[in-house]
Amino acid sequence: xxxxxxxxxxxxxxxxxxxxxxxxxxxxxxxxxxxxxxxxxxxxxxxxxxxxxxxxxxxxxxxxxxxxxxxxxxxxxxxxxxxxxxxxxxxxxxxxxxxxxxxxxxxxxxxxxxxxxxxxxxxxxxxxxxxxxxxxxxxxxxxxxxxxxxxxxxxxxxxxxxxxxxxxxxxxxxxxxxxxxxxxxxxxxxxxxxxxxxxxxxxxxxxxxxxxxxxxxxxxxxxxxxxxxxxxxxxxxxxxxxxxxxxxxxxxxxxxxxxxxxxxxxxxxxxxxxxxxxxxxxxxxxxxxxxxxxxxxxxxxxxxxxxxxxxxxxxxxxxxxxxxxxxxxxxxxxxxxxxxxxxxxxxxxxxxxxxxxxxxxxxxxxxxxxxxxxxxxxxxxxxxxxxxxxxxxxxxxxxxxxxxxxxxxxxxxxxxxxxxxxxxxxxxxxxxxxxxxxxxxxxxxxxxxxxxxxxxxxxxxxxxxxxxxxxxxxxxxxxxxxxxxxxxxxxxxxxxxxxxxxxxxxxxxxxxxxxxxxxxxxxxxxxxxxxxxxxxxxxxxxxxxxxxxxxxxxxxxxxxxxxxxxxxxxxxxxxxxxxxxxxxxxxxxxxxxxxxxxxxxxxxxxxxxxxxxxxxxxxxxxxxxxxxxxxxxxxxxxxxxxxxxxxxxxxxxxxxxxxxxxxxxxxxxxxxxxxxxxxxxxxxxxxxxxxxxxxxxxxxxxxxxxxxxxxxxxxxxxxxxxxxxxxxxxxxxxxxxxxxxxxxxxxxxxxxxxxxxxxxxxxxxxxxxxxxxxxxxxxxxxxxxxxxxx
Length: 790
Known about the structure:
Blueprint: E1 31-36, E2 41-46, E3 51-56, E4 62-69, E5 85-86, H1 88-96, H2 98-110, E6 119-124, E7 132-137, E8 142-147, E9 164-169, E10 191-195, E11 200-205, E12 210-215, E13 222-228, H3 229-232, H4 242-249, E14 261-263, E15 269-276, H5 290-295, H6 304-312, E16 326-328, E17 331-334, E18 340-343, E19 352-357, E20 361-366, E21 383-388, E22 397-400, E23 409-410, E24 412-413, H7 417-421, E25 427-430, E26 433-436, H8 444-453, E27 456-459, E28 464-469, H9 473-480, E29 493-499, E30 505-515, E31 518-523, H10 527-539, E32 544-547, E33 553-558, H11 562-569, E34 570-572, E35 587-592, E36 599-603, E37 612-617, H12 622-633, E38 639-640, H13 643-652, H14 689-697, E39 701-708, E40 719-722, E41 725-736, E42 741-749, E43 758-763, E44 769-776
Parallel strand pairs: 15-22, 24-26, 27-38
Antiparallel strand pairs: 1-9, 2-8, 3-7, 3-9, 4-6, 4-8, 5-6, 10-21, 11-20, 12-19, 12-21, 13-16, 13-20, 14-15, 15-19, 17-18, 22-23, 25-26, 27-33, 28-31, 28-32, 29-30, 30-31, 33-37, 34-35, 35-36, 36-37, 39-42, 39-44, 40-41, 40-43, 41-42, 43-44
């Protein structure tokens, strides 16, 4: 038999590319994931044979499970179990009212479900560990109703409400590109419009109504265009114009908040963006058109422009060779060479943009047919459009995700928002909350001087809070934080860093010790709580780490008069230090006004470099707390303080900020907080200790202060040079009102970080324009910290 010899130059067969997609949920086929927020609910359809797994993510959280048949009657047999408990959490949630209760009522009403006198299956609760699970197999089709009971957290008992994860393994495997589940409607829809892949649909919307454009399966682009219906009746095609919109908003595309409107070519506002769960879109290019595909070798390819022309023809709108539009979910940007570049869409399944019509509109939406590049992930899918009544109310919001595959959390208002919003309309999204930027009838300079000379109050509720409890709570924090937690006594606060094994920082924050086995971690990044929980599981620590951010909102009262102000309004028991006795980095548990007043925790901490305090309370008491502070502060000429003024204060005081002075590539020594790493006195091992010993012995960078001999603005990312060579980068900069000069914080090469070193800050391309500067003592303001210790 003839045998063929293998050529000697034949290599292995080509391998398929490996792509990790943490932004798309890495779940097995047919598995869906949901979340029941602590104190919230979930309603989701189920079918016979579906397998349900419930997980108590953080521990100690009760869960109530109910199921209803298609006839609307509650029947626990659908879950193959007996209901033997009163649905107290469900009743409490519905009795409280508010947005969460309203959504639950609407979901039940849409399905005709009667929950009166219903029993529930009660799961988890006291003693349940983080990660505890319960499983059910659905016996017949119906609706699953879950509630995570939660009341008002007692700040001393630390009885916070946390999330339950729900996974449903479907008995019938869906086609993800066809059967992908739509998110629950935001309200009762007026229109439900499916825009199938590679098509477009036109639709009418009245002034004041809302338009929700949904990416059904993820990674799908959609063009949106609209016309003033009133002007169309007069033969005027006033279409949305991206160039006019960019000019009037000063942004690449509109976003929720003040720069939210999109305008027609005659400057008439047509729509405003109310909510956006993606945050990456395009308004530079036209919708895809025949010429685009012709020029890359795909003549005759279906395209959005032709689809728009066909969809708009019934409305008498003239055809175009290329349609200008807002291209939602397009991942487009401009690189350093001024080239327009694009990549896969950032949108996940169920992501959406919500708009409000500002006049009667004729709208058109496409499901882009592009399958010749990564824009749609190489696989075009459907877009879904819902419209809602003008009677509905939707808050302005963007999405915040703790991890790439997390469910989006829409921007929320803190419990102090009603108080501060009476003083300003200027807000910035920060870590999932709206915070004031500056206040009306004042500016950042006025607010700054109020804090330096009198007293100011600001909202810091977005800080992430976690209750760390259990017999091994101290051991867990000792292992995960750089400070020596064993030295912390009840009533004391310590500022610390949290590091990865390589020494890079996860977060910085404070630890409150409430009792022997009770701590509270307060940081900037929500991931820090997840990290603590992961380490507890990995090391076998008998400790719980439960989020309390939604149960504890806080304001900072800062400035030379802050002590006198709070002495007038804070009552403490004889077992707690009075405000006048409270020392730096100590806290007291008290009440507003008197023995029966709103319960609070007051710490002598802050982020301004001034004498100051922070007041923590349950959200229901926020307005009471603010009113007491504001009223008592009038004789002290109190001012509200926004983020712009806070930035000046903290830069002068040398206080660091995440993604500016530190990242996960920066160790505490490089970030200027080496004092939080007591390598000589903390004998216990902790995460990152070995790397930090090495980094301290062989440092590469140092955080320094700069004084700039110029009045031109210096900011984050500006390069620092000696001659042609770059030897550092500005992390933060501002014009210091009290020092009357421009100052900055900069991360410098240690060989060029000595006091008095003359450097230059590069502007434009870093070479054409330079600002002279000198390395000075750090921090710039009150380096001995006499004011905060006063």
